[in-house]
Design goal:
heterodimer, A: about 100 residues, mainly alpha, Helix Hairpins, 3 helices, elongated, B: about 180 residues, Four Helix Bundle (Hemerythrin (Met), subunit A), about 0% strand, globular
Chain lengths: ~100, ~180
């Protein structure tokens, strides 16, 4: 398989994630965009690992780390979204008042 | 074209289509469910690239818990789930231009750098191999990662319980 195929798929997924982060208003959907960008990076690491053929599989181990960090990030992110919703009554990133002090 | 390549192209098409649906469809919960399909087909491409353990970790961690958390948060914020519930910002078209430019830029970069390269019979990253590497060469980053996870866990708990007590005291102040 050409190495460029997974690289291009990863680039397309990353662009979709960027669009999701910039265009969506609901905070949870913004987080989905972030997760999609992280998944694209994971695919890159796996593709380069398969191409390089290194016996210690650094690419796959780093992908495992990325997945674990993404899980930690989504846990914290959703806690922040829920705190925001409790404080302001909305999870819409455009509707959050700028001077919320609760 | 070998069978692996055909399967990869099919999975890539599913992945891109469901990814586009996940960021453009106008229902909140549907977006999260399309995201499941994106991550699932991505796990399939991991299998084709001989990352066996990673594919199953992807299924377990992402499909099993992250997406459940996402849907859980959608439900907890009492978001409307009907058609038109997932709205877009005003600069949606600018976002589309930036996203396309990012894709094209990264794609051209990958093609220019590694256009002629082939992946030939990669060694399988079985649980045995990855576990061996993880607990010898990568053991220090692994331990640091466990600390990061612990910190994230404590932080999430502090965020979700601390906020409530602040809100309660605020309500008590208002009563007085």
């Amino acid at each position: 398989m050409p190495l460029a195929w997974p690289l291009i798929l990863s680039a397309v997924l990353f662009g979709i994630g960027v669009y999701g982060v910039l265009a969506r208003r609901h905070a949870v959907l913004v987080l989905i965009g972030v997760e999609m960008m992280l998944a694209a990076v994971t695919l890159d690491l796996v593709a380069f690992d398969a191409w390089w053929g290194e016996p210690s599989h650094s690419g796959q181990v780093l992908s495992l780390f990325v997945i674990a960090l993404a899980a930690a990030e989504i846990g914290l992110g959703l806690a922040i979204v829920l705190a925001l919703y409790r404080a302001t009554g909305t999870a819409d990133v455009d509707d959050v008042p700028a001077r919320e002090r609760r | 074209m070998s069978a692996v390549e055909v399967v990869f192209l099919v999975l890539a098409a599913v992945c891109v289509f469901s990814g586009l649906q996940a960021v453009t469809c106008d229902r909140l919960v549907h977006a999260a469910l399309w995201f499941v399909l994106t991550l699932g087909s991505l796990a399939g491409t991991f299998l084709l690239l001989a990352a066996e353990l990673l594919a199953w970790v992807q299924v377990l961690v992402y499909l099993g818990s992250v997406v459940v958390l996402l849907v859980f948060a959608l439900m907890l914020t009492r978001a409307p789930t009907g058609s038109g519930s997932a709205t877009f910002t005003r600069n949606r078209w600018l976002a589309a231009v930036i996203g396309t430019a990012t894709s094209v830029g990264l794609g051209v970069l990958g093609w220019a750098g590694f256009g002629g390269q082939e992946i030939v019979s990669p060694t399988v990253g079985s649980p045995e191999v990855i576990g061996q590497v993880l607990f010898t060469e990568w053991v220090l980053p692994f331990e640091i990662l466990s600390l990061v996870l612990l910190a994230a866990l404590v932080g999430a708990i502090a965020l979700s319980t601390g906020q409530r007590t602040v809100g309660d005291s605020g309500a008590a102040d208002g009563d007085r």
